[in-house]
Hints:
This protein is mostly beta strands.
Amino acid sequence: MEIHVETGRVSKHVKIAELIVRAIVTGEDDEEEEQIETRLQGRLENISGKFLDDIRYDVSYYDKDDKFLGLDRSGFLDDDEMEGGDQLPIDLEVDLPEDCVRCVFNVRAKRAGWIGRLL
């Protein structure tokens, strides 16, 4: 699978350590039909040294003419906290549009307030 993944807007609190779009074959045994699942996988690193919460990420899709084709994003409760220095694995099922040639990965993260650090 040849899809270019680039970074878009990324919070100053995190660094994208690794990022790839990958096809995974599922249901390979005799009873199940083989299916291919497309996933965006990688790792975020908390470079702020502080506790982060409300971490959200998305991937936007574009065609060869740079036309926006849609996006997929992390779930409401997915991966929403990270201590200073921690790494957070990303594994997001993506639905690539047929004419997609480029993906842009965006990350939002906020430093936790004092109430967030207590919970």
